[in-house]
Amino acid sequence: MVGANLITSLQEIRDFRASQGRRYPLWLILLLVIMGTSSGAEVTTRPLDFGARHYQVVSEQLGLIATRLPSDTT
After folding, report:
1. Strand, helix or coil at 55?
2. Which of 3, 28, 36, 73 measures 20 to 30 Å from 43, CA to CA?
3. pLDDT tens across 22-37, in order?
């Protein structure tokens, strides 16, 4: 399981996005980007591809209910 300290730290980051249309918590998006870049994806080459490949396992481990992944534009 991903370290609870990382998730806790990400959850403490203030989310400046407009609340309208916000479907995913900021900490989850940041976590997927961190995990994607840690697995070798470059920021400019879709780090959320990691999420697409591993979202089922990540969501099960974190107890997430979301059925869709954040898009690249998110």
Report:
1. helix
2. 3
3. 778 888 888 888 887 7
| Separation CA 68–CA 38 (nearest Å) | 22
Q: What is the Cα–Cα distance from 31 to 23, expressed in whole angstroms?
A: 15
Which helix (H) or strand (E) element contains residue 35? helix 26-38
pTM for this structure? 0.68
CA pair distance 61, 72, nearest whole angstrom:
22
Question: E strand or H helix at 50, and its extent?
Answer: helix 49-62
Copy the structure tokens of residue 3. 């370290």
Tell me the HSE value of 38 on the side-chain side, using a 13 A CA sphere.
8
